[in-house]
Amino acid sequence: LDLLKAGLVYRKESSVNWDPVDMTVLANEQVIDGRGWRSGALVERKKLNQWFLKITQFADELLEGLQTLDQWPDKVRLMQENWIGKSKGLRCTFNFVDSPDGIDVFTTRPDTMFGASFIAIAADHPVAADLAQHAPALKSFIEECHKGGTTAADIETAEKFGFNTGLSVQHPLDPHWHLPVYVANFVLMDYGTGAIFGCPAHDQRDLDFARKYDLSVTRVVAEHQEEDSGFQGDIAYTGPGRIVNSHFLNGLSVEEAKAEIIAKAEHEGWGQGQIQYRLRDWGVSRQRYWGTPIPIIHCEFCGAMPVPRAQLPVVLPEDVTFDIPGNPLDRHPTWKNVPCPNCKEPARRETDTLDTFVNSSWYFIRFSSQPKDKPFDRAEAEQWLPVGQYIGGVEHAILHLLYARFWTRALQHMGRLGLAEPFKGLFTQGMVTHETYRAIELQTDAKGNPRLFNGEPVIDYHWVSPDDLYAEDDNLFEKGTGLPVQVGRIEKMSKSKKNVVDPDPMFDQYGADALRWFMLSDSPPERDLEWSEAGIEGTWRFVNRIWRLFDALDGAATGEDAALDKVLHRAIAGIGADIDALTFNKAVAKVHELVNAIEKANSSTTKTEAIRTLVRLISPMLPHLAEEGWMVMGGEGLVATQQWPEHDPALLVDDEVTIAIQVNGKLRDTLTLPKVADKAALEAAALASEKVIRALNGAAPKKVIVVPGRLVNIVA
RNA sequence: GCGGACGUGGCGAAACCGGUAGACGCAGCAGACUUAAAAUCUGCUUCUCUUCAUGAGAGUGCGGGUUCAAGUCCCGCCGUCCGCACCA
């Protein structure tokens, strides 16, 4: 309601995927090959009244704000940047030849205006709707445009269609130049002005359209020396070049010409420079029961009225059924019937509920502050926020992470929270993935005969859990039904696809520590991890090895072990750095190295100390084992509360280093030499090497490159 | 179509600023211990060739290039994955 008051909420008609059989709105993901995923019916585009949040008001802020998020992955920032999609161009009017009105278009290529050959408007454009009232042919063309899905595959293969309205407009730069107006299926109503001017020579879609309807194609940008206005072929030229066939623009670069035209349009008053965003307002209406109710009451006389604050929160009814398609709130007998808060006449509750992403847009604020009487306490929330290190999958890059940024800025805008960005640092972890399995079943009618659609049998798929499979002659079948099972792609584990492995049996068999260690071991956390149990045995053995090490602790040991001390301090430094960098797989490798070294070492005070230190090093990754070890060793309190061990930087450097000796870039020998050895000493040692002498085979070295502490390369 | 990432042994992967490719682990092989097995321990384990060693050659998707030196940098391909997608 605060957002509504701040003018950040509105209601408008918008297009949705509509399944005419199940009578429901479908998400894009639920439209498969243009058909409803359940009903198999052709999906239509339908207009529904929906609530929107005005995220576009913050488009520029959200874009600019990305630059402050230096602890976010570049990938996510780039995805958001592309999603917001800022572009600069010209908005201008093409006036009708015989009426005072005109059609507004937006273009990012005003430099190509002299190459215009037609105007195309969206099927939903008001001009098209007007004309259609008296033109049945246009009306059916528009209906045709509404059919056909909105899926990627559909769009890619969709042919361009147009309908010549018979209207003509004047070119703004030459009133005697008239252009035809088409309604075209490839023009979108919700980007720009819903209308374009077509410049076929320099836009692929326009060229496809022009070739199909035999419209003129004029070259106005020359890549090299092409001056002629004719344009051959079916590939538009969209690169840089010099403007030609364009009167006063001739000879300018594309960029110069854009600036020139925008300046002229603004000066003469027929257009202006405009910034356009790809980002659209956030449609939050869902026709579902499970969602936060939208606190609005629709009154026949007063319109959409906010629910009075005293009546908040609006609570969902619990006596609902889900046995038939559609929103249970809509058909509930009483819940939606309430008096209008203003005129008290009978009115109707909003039965749409909010997208769940609305809730996740501010949960972190509530986490930081949970007063009973309001969503959060500003001072308390500000004390904790922003979130220092946020961890989640990339799948939220442009959904949750953009919505939450918007929500935070909206709260700031309304003076509710002094915070521009909710998440300071972001780490996008990989997904745990697994093969998917689908059982195939032919649909049958009431008599048990296969159901046909356009003569083809209708096939039902359902996902099968890996636990519900059995193999027979190299083929997979579903337990219980015996249906054949197809192995599908490896995808992130999800409840909907059932490609989930329950870790509980492994947990029972090997314990929480072994399982945790196993998951940290091999794969870097930002990478997807294909789940496999191969290796858990080895992990479990390693946990036992450490345990035996604690057992072998020798308090009476004497003597020191300088070599082991070095390994230990190197491990302390390395493991700490790896944990800081979230490269746990490398930390695990270093623990292995340390344990290997301790096991091989003879008894000494150093070894005893190393084992005691090991307990603290493994504690973040093997907490139970570490606590047991800590207790066995008589440590005070919990190891989890101990300081991270200090490392001695002096022990990280070696007195002696292994130097690679190359001849012509090929490794011929390695020599262990004092770290302090200077270039001359290294060169001398290298040239003295028997293997080097053999490799040189009498040839005199032309040049010797010495990298102290690393290698010597003899060029012969 | 646009944008991005990635490509290293049988497998998961390491490799800092261009400087010994394959750390560490899984799997595998051989051996010790054992009546036997498990567990444990030891050794081997990128590929090819040979005179079998302190040997030679090849090798990080493919083809070029820069450099004394390239998994790493540059150019061009091929492939895989991710995001967006008729955005004017």
- Number of beta-strand segments: 35
pLDDT under 50 segments (min length 5)? none
Task: Bin the strand percentage.
Answer: 25-35%
Which structural class fits the helix and strand makeup?
Answer: alpha+beta
Radius of gyration: 35 Å
Q: What's the number of helices?
A: 22
Quote the distance from N terminus to C terminus. Answer: 80 Å
- Average pLDDT confidence is 88
The portion of residues assigned to helices is 25-40%
- Taken from the alpha-carbon principal axes, the silhouette is globular
Main beta-sheet strand count, sense and barrel state = 6 strands, mixed
Helices, strands, pairings?
Elements: H1 2-5, E1 9-19, E2 24-26, E3 31-32, E4 35-36, E5 44-53, H2 59-65, H3 74-84, E6 86-95, E7 102-107, E8 118-121, H4 126-132, H5 136-146, H6 152-157, E9 162-171, E10 174-184, E11 195-198, H7 204-213, E12 221-222, E13 242-243, H8 254-268, E14 271-277, E15 282-283, E16 285-286, E17 296-299, E18 303-306, H9 328-331, E19 337-339, E20 346-349, E21 353-354, H10 356-360, H11 363-368, H12 378-384, E22 387-393, H13 400-413, E23 423-429, E24 432-442, E25 452-453, E26 456-457, E27 459-463, E28 469-472, E29 475-478, E30 484-492, H14 504-510, H15 512-521, E31 529-530, H16 536-551, H17 562-580, H18 584-600, H19 605-618, H20 623-632, E32 656-663, E33 666-674, H21 679-688, H22 690-696, E34 703-707, E35 711-715
Parallel strand pairs: 8-10, 22-23, 24-31, 32-35
Antiparallel strand pairs: 1-2, 1-5, 3-4, 5-15, 6-7, 6-14, 8-11, 9-10, 12-13, 16-21, 17-18, 17-20, 19-20, 24-27, 24-30, 25-26, 28-29, 29-30, 32-33, 34-35
Helix pairs in contact: 4-5, 14-15, 15-16, 17-18, 17-19, 18-19, 19-20
This protein binds one RNA strand of 88 nucleotides through helix 3, strand 7, helix 6, strand 11 and helix 7.
